[in-house]
Amino acid sequence: MRVAVIGAGIIGACIAHALAKRGAEVILLDRDEPGQGCSSGNSGAISAGSVAPVAMPGVLSSVPKMLLDAESPLFLPLGYLPKALPWLMEFVASATPGRVAASARALDDFHRGAVAAHVALAAEVGVPELILQRGHLHLYPDEAALAKDAGGWRMREAYGYKWERLDREGILALEPGVAPRYRIGLYLADHATIVNPLRYVQAIVHAFRAIGGKLKREAVRSIAALPGARWQVNAGDTFDHVVVAAGASSPRLLSPLGIRISLESQRGYHVQFAGAQSLVSRTVVLADKKIFVTPMEEGLRVGGTVEIAGLDRPPDLRRAAILERIVRETFKGLEGITPTTWMGHRPCMPDSVPVVGPAVGRPGVWLAVGHGHLGMTDSVNTAKRIAEALLPAH
After folding, report:
1. How many CA atoms lie less than 13 Å away from 314 in the CB half-sphere?
2. Full DSSP string of 119-137
3. Whole-model pTM over 0.85
């Protein structure tokens, strides 16, 4: 079986590796080096308990703030509203209690066993040191802030995820550098972090090539059907199957095939302070600000914010400046360090549930898109789904 996997981020890398292990002839295609896109700049969180979709009941009331408050964790510039409106309407419609419950069930199915799956894969590809198993600490300033997230915590509990509630003393016992503003902590001990997502993707691709997989640096412009149920990529190589894992760029590839997916880029930002990773010892979530603070190999990474502004607009560095200001207010020890900044495109579905499986009406085309904020968490399980569907184990 000859398979093209389009997209060498964490999702595509895991799929290519899984298919090659089962004996397929796999070519992994990307215009950039593996992991250089969204996979390189994310916060590395393996968040199996994140079963609550982004759109929760009551989200409609937050739309004016999204449009008018540039510091809102979820921001949509007014100028982009006409283009974003169809997706935004689906986003709001997905926030009914029944649809939220269905999304949570689907997300839990994707997330289940994610930490163990990554521990096993990291060991297999020779980088076990990249998995930090010290849990995630979510911080709130007061009961009112915690109450805003109560629905998400109830969902975690319903799916069996346990946490420990900490007072100020308990927070300091885990993370002594947290500012006095934060008085309540919820600690998920069984969550984990990948402390260098780019190096992780590169290790997976290296292992894929070591077992015969091929990597091709090429921008994919077209996918075309050929007689005999085969597929051609860029009017060149032909394949039995094509797996599209091209992140936020996937709709541009799929639309000419008549495949519509309601996917929008939720642009995420990070700032990174070189050498300051010792300020925290695990992933710390400033939950009221929707900001992740992570001890990466190369420094302290501060990631977050959602900006719905499409693929083509330049980064809005004011979003990165918000992250920098908040983390400096929360942790001492960053004085004199000028951070680097990054922006990437997280491919998000309105209901937060990725689309994984065969494309309807297009036999041989497979989709692995729309993982949003949880691509790292779900990458190994997504690869398993695709591999088992294409090449069932006997």
Report:
1. 2
2. HHHHHHTT-GGGEE-S-EE
3. yes
Sheet holding 230-233, edge to edge: 223-226, 230-233, 238-239
Tell me the two tokens of residue 334: 């960053």
What's the start-to-end Cα distance of the chain, in Å? 16
Q: Print burial letters for 324-337: b (CB count within 10 Å at least 16), e (below 16).
A: bebbbebbeebeee
What's the number of domains the chain is made of?
1
For 187, the 3-state DSSP assignment is strand
- Which residues have CB under 8 Å from 30's CB, separation 6+? 6, 7, 8, 9, 12, 36, 216, 217, 218
**pLDDT per position as a tens digit, 233-246:** 998 899 999 999 99
Residue type, 69: D
pLDDT digits (tens, 9 = 90+) for 321-343: 999 999 999 999 999 999 999 99
In whole angstroms, give the CA distance from residue 333 to residue 337.
Answer: 9
Whole-number Å distance between alpha carbons of 340 and 303: 12
Where would I find the beta strands (DSSP E) of 52-197?
Answer: 74-75, 131-132, 136-140, 164-166, 184-188, 192-194
Distance of CA 35 to the CA centre of its chain: 13
Structural domain containing residue 291? 2-390
Q: Residue 336 is part of a domain; what is its CATH number?
A: 3.50.50.60
Sign of the C-alpha dihedral, residues 299, 300, 304, 307? negative
For residue 179, what are the CA distances in angstroms to 34, 168, 339? Answer: 38, 10, 20
Tokens encoding 52: 């609550």
